[in-house]
Write a structure and sequence with these properties.
Structural class: alpha/beta
Radius of gyration: 17 Å
Number of strands: 6
Strand order of the largest sheet: 3-2-4-1-5-6
Largest sheet: 6 strands, mixed
Number of helices: 8
Strand content: 5-15%
Distance between the termini: 20 Å
């Protein structure tokens, strides 16, 4: 079995070095080109898919749309908030360099990359509180984050892997997942059973397909990036 995972192409806020989280920004022109190249590469390498999974954020959705268009595929797509980027709390909308300068390199790295440290939380009256967005109206209050660590992100990604993606793979479906840096880190941690310290240092490049080859028990046999 093969599972292909791709981080969305560069967003307009990636370009401006801003913490994004669940803020729903679009792709930059570079990001669109990264998605086009990914789709062309997947087609060139002979990949086909039966089903796609993505988040409810347009930078991942648009990346997937561009990839499938380049491949000439029209397939069903499942969307879930569980594949969203990590919720960066009060850091969302803030420039990363300014946060680093204000709080120091060590605190910045803890907020941005550590496995268990959560950034400062927002409050429920914040304009960024997800309950104010129609996309999340079906979520229970306890499912709506005010901030998240990578560990929290893993906790919400895991049920989706177990209940949606893994069953699809076991049915023999060829799957592509378009998601985000931290939701993909969560997937990598689960699939490869690596430590929190190791996954915090793992880089996920934008717009580059990551391929997992698995046995019938969903144990990873081989992992590689398409280039």
């Amino acid at each position: 079995m093969k599972l292909v995972v791709i981080r969305h192409g560069e967003s307009v806020w990636n370009k401006e070095n801003i913490f994004t989280g669940w803020v729903d920004v679009g792709l930059s022109e570079k990001g669109k080109e990264e998605a086009r190249k990914a789709g062309q590469l997947l087609k060139e390498k002979g990949f086909v898919f039966d089903l796609a999974h993505t988040s409810v954020l347009k930078r991942a959705i648009d990346t997937l749309d561009i990839v499938l268009k380049e491949m000439g595929l029209e397939i069903p797509v499942k969307h879930s908030w569980r594949l969203n980027e990590r919720f960066y709390g009060a850091l969302q909308g803030q420039n990363k360099d300014e946060i680093k300068e204000k709080y120091g390199e060590e605190q910045f790295k803890l907020w941005r990359r550590s496995y268990e440290t959560r950034p400062p939380a927002i409050t429920k009256d914040s304009e960024m509180y997800p309950a104010k967005d129609e996309k999340y109206k079906e979520l229970k209050e306890e499912e709506i984050p005010l901030t998240e660590s990578l560990k929290d992100t893993e906790a919400r990604v895991l049920p989706y892997l177990n209940n949606e993606i893994f069953p699809d793979l076991k049915e023999g479906k060829k799957i592509i997942v378009s998601a985000h840096g931290n939701s993909i880190r969560a997937m990598v941690k689960i699939l490869e059973n690596v430590s929190g310290e190791e996954i915090a240092e793992t880089e996920i490049p934008m717009g580059v397909p990551l391929v997992y080859e698995m046995d019938d028990n969903l144990k990873v046999i081989k992992k590689y990036y398409l280039e």
